[in-house]
Specification:
By secondary structure, this protein is mainly alpha-helical. It has a domain of 152 residues. It has 14 helices and eight strands. The strands form three sheets. It has a three-stranded mixed beta sheet. A three-stranded antiparallel beta sheet has the order 6-3-7, sandwiched between helices. A hairpin with a 3-residue loop joins strand 4 and strand 5. Helix 1 runs antiparallel to helix 2 and helix 8 packs antiparallel against helix 9. The longest helix has 32 residues.
């Protein structure tokens, strides 16, 4: 497959930055570039796959659904028509990347790493579980708490025509639609060095877009189950955020390190108890058992706890514009252009308006 010269120039710009980053970073960037190129070079046209006789009926149906979802995203939600999700890549693994998140032993603040494209983020992504685990082991040797989380999709922020991946193609229809809406939102508005802003914004577009998509199709019976699923997701995130807040209060206290370590263990045990209680209220829904059935530490709390902090604020801004997405996007762009302090102040005031 021949790649456009512009894409190669972008990759070259990343590679040219490597000597400035130090030898330890060269290997990381190389695996990232090679990993993404592998996805791009194995991408096949969805339109061609749908027409190809040897394409299985199940895959053809899922690809046809992707075409319809993408069209809705562009025509109805006003998301970018940049060629993303017009191709499909089959991967021989359950996740496309594995993200490594780390915190100091007695802190809930994640370490950050800065990259030419995405800015500074609180994780490092690897296209190989083996490489992710090797980096995680190095961090553990330095005494950090570490979490390795599999990720089924990601966005290149419009730099490339992102394909839909085999890791997500069999998602239930509302989840597949939500993922495409979410990732295209990143490609439309993305603020460097502000993961919370970006994830909160994309989550609101995902939620609103999925609801409108189901309504347009007349699939009203699917709306309530999907909303229940998303509400349970919000409940789970809130549970983790509450646990992280308690942990932060303990670890920033004036008590001794030994006391903090003991209390840290108690709080993680309490989180398990709280999860069992919330699971009972969900009639035994085991969706998050896999996440909880790990040797949890501060890095796990940091990997999830704050990403969605401003979702209620973005939802309030959408409602302010009477659900007019175009006006909503315009305001979010304006807020995104502000310095981080001003940006956070506006969103926080939207969360807790003054009387």
């Amino acid at each position: 497959m021949i790649m456009q010269a512009g894409r190669w120039s972008r990759i070259a710009s990343i590679l040219l930055a490597l000597p400035l980053a130090g030898c330890s970073s060269i290997g990381y960037y190389a695996q990232a570039v090679i990993g993404h190129l592998d996805i791009i070079t194995h991408r096949e046209s969805i339109a061609a796959l749908i027409e190809r006789p040897e394409t299985g009926d199940d895959l053809r149906g899922r690809l046809s659904q992707t075409v319809q979802i993408r069209e809705f995203a562009i025509q109805t939600l006003g998301l970018p028509d940049n060629g993303s999700y017009t191709g499909y890549t089959n991967l021989d693994r359950p996740y496309v990347v594995w993200n490594v998140v780390a915190t100091p032993e007695l802190s809930t603040t994640p370490l950050t790493w800065c990259f030419p494209v995405a800015g500074c983020v609180s994780y490092r992504g690897y296209f190989s579980l083996e490489k992710a685990e090797a980096f995680a082991a190095t961090l553990r040797q330095h005494g950090h708490d570490v979490a390795v989380n599999g990720v089924r999709a990601y966005s290149t922020l419009g730099w490339f025509k992102d394909p839909i991946l085999s890791t997500v193609i069999n998602y239930p229809d509302p989840d597949l639609a939500g993922l495409i809406f979410h990732e295209l939102s990143h490609q439309m508005i993305y603020v460097s060095d502000d993961t919370v802003f970006n994830e909160s914004f994309a989550t609101v577009v995902e939620q609103e877009g999925t609801k409108r998509w189901l309504e347009t199709l007349g699939r009203h019976d699917d709306i309530v189950p999907h909303q229940i699923k998303k509400q349970r997701q919000r409940d789970f995130i809130a549970l983790i955020m509450q646990s992280r807040a308690r942990m932060t209060n303990v670890l920033t206290s004036d008590e001794s390190d030994d006391w903090k370590r003991n209390r840290k263990k108690e709080l993680l045990d309490e989180l398990q108890t709280d999860y069992r209680e919330i699971k009972d209220r969900w009639d035994g829904d085991s969706t998050y058992d896999g996440w909880m059935n790990r040797d949890l530490n501060n890095a796990h709390l940091a990997s999830l706890g704050t990403y969605y902090h401003y979702v209620p604020a973005f939802r309030a801004l959408l409602e302010k514009h009477q659900s007019n997405l175009s006006a909503f996007y315009d305001e979010i762009r304006t807020i995104g252009d502000l310095p981080k302090g001003e940006r956070d102040s506006i969103l926080q005031n939207t969360l807790t308006p003054t009387s």
